[in-house]
Design goal:
disordered N terminus; 4-stranded mixed β-sheet; single chain; 24 strands; disordered C terminus; 8-stranded mixed β-sheet
């Protein structure tokens, strides 16, 4: 949830672990310090809180401390909490926030739901994003899978799921499991902390146009939006056209929060004007993937930028439609 900052490694790191649900310090809690290296994140020290929730860690020396990213980690009630340490932390104790955990579904709600469909010759590429909001002081976690979504039979149970916490959280892979007795319903076990949690689903399947696509919106709160690139036409009961995103010319529709089926005709992918002017098609690239914080691939960067612009457009269109 914190911004990635470089940390000049110091001999001692002091801080406090506070339970923000109760407002009380957390005693006898292990706090671990990890540091980035060529081998990945490695242990760099640990400590335990006292009765006032205070801890002190004597950090192990690093080869080049100024180039290392360091992070404090706490596992509280089965949920991991991380805190990136700011530069020049001496004299400024670090506070690590934790929360009580509950499995009450009403703690969270879907704030935004976006479904991007890209039919290309021979297949269909689908990317679905859910923004989940937790306005409480409790972390919602259900071991049976707190986040649930509908996966069309067309996907044959194959879907890539990435989850992240906060606006700048690093996406992590999570397994999707079918829910017993509920066809095409899948669940993901991932803690939804106070604030925002994002789930990104991606999958591809053989597909030809014109063709039919069916899905279901499980959540009853929050808008559900369908996006299709320029060159693609969709028609179906319950779809309400909201307009066109100016930068990508993608068409945006409101979907009902229920079962929905629509026909798809044409082909197209989401791309930026810059990529089009350079003559770089997106059809030859890999399926759409979740965009990590760093730019690992130019194609993914273009798609991530375009999808980000669409998200802004959704907010504008949603507010405009609500004011009518």
């Amino acid at each position: 949830m914190s911004s990635v900052l470089l940390f000049l490694l110091l001999p001692m790191i002091d801080g406090t672990v506070v339970n923000k649900t109760t407002g009380q310090p957390v005693a006898n809690q292990t706090v671990n310090l990890v540091r980035a290296s060529e081998k990945g994140m490695e242990p760099a020290g640990s400590g335990k809180t006292d009765a006032q929730g205070k801890f002190s860690i004597e950090a192990k020396p690093g080869a080049d401390p100024a180039q290392n990213i360091s992070m404090l980690q706490v596992n509280y009630q089965g949920v991991g909490y991380n805190k990136l340490v700011p530069p020049m932390a001496a004299g400024s104790p670090v506070e690590i926030e934790v929360f009580d955990t509950a499995a009450t579904p009403g703690l969270v709600e879907t704030a935004q739901h976006m479904l991007l469909i890209e039919p290309v010759p021979g297949e269909i590429r689908v990317r679905e994003t859910f923004m989940i909001e937790n306005k409480t002081r409790l972390t919602y976690q259900d071991p049976r899978g707190g986040f649930r979504f509908y996966l069309p039979a067309l996907a044959q149970g194959k879907v890539d799921v990435k989850a992240s916490t906060g606006a700048q959280g690093v996406p992590v892979n999570r397994a999707a499991k079918p829910v017993a007795g509920q066809p095409n319903i899948y669940s993901v076990d991932f803690p939804m902390k106070p604030g925002e949690t994002r789930f990104d689903l991606t999958w591809t399947a053989p597909f030809g146009t014109p063709g039919e696509f069916s899905t279901e919106v499980l959540h009853k709160e929050g808008p559900a939006r369908l996006i299709v690139p320029r060159g693609v036409t969709v028609k179906g009961d319950g779809l309400k056209e909201l307009g066109t995103e100016p930068s990508t010319q993608a068409a945006i529709f409101q979907m009902p929060n229920a079962k929905v089926s629509f026909s798809i005709e044409g082909a197209g992918t989401l791309s930026s004007p810059a990529s089009n002017s350079e003559g770089e098609g997106q059809n030859d690239g890999p399926p759409i993937d979740v965009i990590p914080p760093k730019i690992y691939d130019r194609v993914y960067w273009v798609l991530g930028l375009s999808f980000g612009m669409l998200a802004i457009a959704f907010v504008y269109l949603y507010r405009a439609s609500s004011s009518k």
